Amino acid sequence: MLQRSLIVSIFLCAVLVYDPKLIDHFLHSRFLATSIFLLTFSAICFWFYRKGPVKLSWLDISVILFCSWNLVSLGWAEHLAEGLFAAEKWILFSGGYFIIRVIFRQDIETVISYLPKVSRIATLYILLIITYELATLLADGSYNNTSLYELQRLFGHRSLIAGFLMLLIPLNLLDVKVRGALFTPISALIGWQVVVIIMLQSRAVYLGLFVMLAIIGMYSWRKRNEWLSPALSRQVVSVMSLMILGVVIILITNPSLRDRVNPLNYATAQTGYERRLIWIKSANMVKDHPIIGVGSGNWKMLFPGYGLEGSYRMQDQQVVFTRVHNDFLEILVELGGIGLLIYIAVFLVAWYRLWRSSDKPTWQQLMVGSGLASFAVVSLIDFPKERIEFILLLALYLALTDLLTKRTSGFRFGINKGIILGVLGAALCFIGWTGLARYHGELKTKEMLKARASQQWEKVILLSREAQSRWYNVDHATTPLLFYSGIAQYHLGDLDQAEEDFRRGLAIHPHHFQLHNNLSTVLLQKKNFSEAIVHLEEALRINDRFEDALFNLAFCYYSMKDFEQAKQVVQRIPTDSEKKQAFTQEITKALQDNPD
Predict the structure, then answer these.
(1) What is the mean pLDDT of the chain?
(2) What angle (nearest 5°) sits at the alpha carbon of residue 180, between those of residues 174 and 184?
(3) Is 450 helix (H, G, I), strand (E, B) or coil?
(4) What is the rounded CA–CA span in Å between residue 112 and residue 174?
(5) Is the dihedral of CA 302, 306, 309, 310 positive or negative?
(6) Which of 90, 314, 537, 566 holds its CA 20 to 30 A away from the CA of 385?
């Protein structure tokens, strides 16, 4: 009963939990729900299973080391709140891994028979909703890449939807009986999954799915005489042929999808160009912090400091990137070479145990290994580690790895379960507390943004103060909440309080170019031109196409009667707006009136 409750709880947290009152409906709500769910099961484990030692395997050690290194990295992280949030995800990961392992070990056969059933129910639920959304787009004639980006049901992003569906495939097949008849409803479900994944048009998931199916297909073919009866072999071939035929028909009838699937087109796509640009700049961050990194969760806070040149969306549209779109590279930036080696070791140890711990790997081991492989492949292009539902699945796959294989040697001594569960319970209490603060902060932030849109400045200030805490002080786009209260104070005419809020905001995020510009606006009104120039130059170092800062800098020089310098700055403004033309005429007239 306890094993079944744990399995159901995992999928409830990973699929059903969300709150539309939040800016991101899923991230903080699932983080908080997972904290509560793991705390509950850690208490149950402490009550029933605290006696006896736990002998750690190398897989256990690698999981614990990675979690610990995330925590240690907070010692040099510039932004503690976001760093702690990122590190806490890995505490949930390691806690989930340990709890699943302890509870599942009591009756692994029940788990193997029950887990796929719950996974299939979750898969069916996701497929029904997403298929309806896709059918609506097809019926409206609006099925295209743009509309798919706006598909946010259940997970918030079409790549996350596709990735989660892909990772459920091995779990759905976990209890398939080899040398028996192929269970047709399961085959239909897997085929449905594959079709929906293809229609969601996520290139990273395409690659992960290809690797997964290739591993399953090649190893199954190699073991066909042991695993498959002649009848089952024919059915497998038939099902695979139908799936391939369905994919071919979809590609033939949809040219845009066909172009997107073509890997040669990715190099010229906007997303491909932007990711290469981000990866190159991230490599520069690695050069500055190669061994220990910049600290857990701090990439998004430090990235703008390396300049935004080369990206139209980041410079002209002021789109903020909060992830590298390559989990391994992001770990290298944040945790350095040490952290990356530990993270890679987690996968290598798991694969070693799956393929080398027994002479004949079982079907279940093949499923778990292919799931881990696809997770790693998707991580090279996307961001599954950001989302708690994917971290839960990773913990589940690793726990299954431990339970389905012979344990390799680790530490010779054992650690008392009660000590581990007690420490974990205390950590989960703290995580739940900080998670509640972040959940509350995002609720208030969304209300604050609505108040800002309607120019209710007093309400903006109040909600900004209510949202902010030591655990949550920047919004989903890494903008300090003090930025909004500073703007509100400025509009209410309180320049001193606006200046204080902007300065405190820069202390939180010193690479926020809009904050530098807003502070300079206040300084200009106070005629503190020299300091205003310092902040404007910093804003333009980060984003040299930021027009507001260029206008402010030109006005600053104009106010100082340095008209020639003002003219040079105006000429740097990329667009030829009426405002630029009028300002140019004003400066030209000033130069004529003041020839010296």
Answers:
(1) 87
(2) 70
(3) helix
(4) 7
(5) negative
(6) 314
Distance CA 272, CA 348 (A): 28
**DSSP H helical ranges for 316-416:** 327-356, 363-379, 388-404
Q: What is the DSSP letter of 472?
A: B
Name residues whose C-beta falls within 8 Å of residue 437's C-beta, 6 or more positions apart in sequence.
469, 471, 472
pLDDT digits (tens, 9 = 90+) for 175-192: 876 544 445 688 788 888
pLDDT digits (tens, 9 = 90+) for 21-71: 999 999 999 999 999 999 988 888 777 766 666 778 889 899 999 999 999
Compute the distance between CA of residue 586 and CA of residue 100 in angstroms, rounded to an integer: 71
Q: β-pairing, 53-55 with 414-416?
A: antiparallel
CA distances 219 to 336, 346, 542, Å, are 35, 23, 51
Q: 311, exposed or middle or buried, with CB in 10 Å at 0-12, 13-18, 19+?
A: buried
Across the strands, what pairs with 54? 415
Contact 159, 202 (CB under 8 A): yes
What DSSP element (H or E) covers 55? Answer: strand 53-55
Q: Any idea what DSSP says for residue 12?
A: I
* Helix%, strand%, coil% for the chain, nearest 5: 75, 0, 25
Q: Which residue has the higher pLDDT, 579 or 239?
A: 579
The H or E element containing residue 415 is strand 414-416
* Residue (of 527, 528, 505, 529) closest to 516 by Cα position: 505
Residue 177 burial by CB count (10 A; 0-12/13-18/19+): exposed, middle or buried?
exposed
Q: Which residue has the tokens 């008849």?
A: 181
Spatial neighbors of 534 by CB under 8 A, at least 6 apart, are none
Which residue in 228, 41, 5 sits closest to 114, CA to CA?
Answer: 5
Using CA atoms, how far apart are residues 59 and 407, in angstroms rounded to an integer?
A: 9
* Token reading at 414: 């054992």
pTM exceeds cut of 0.70: yes
- Determine the residue type at 320: V
d(CA 320, CA 304): 9
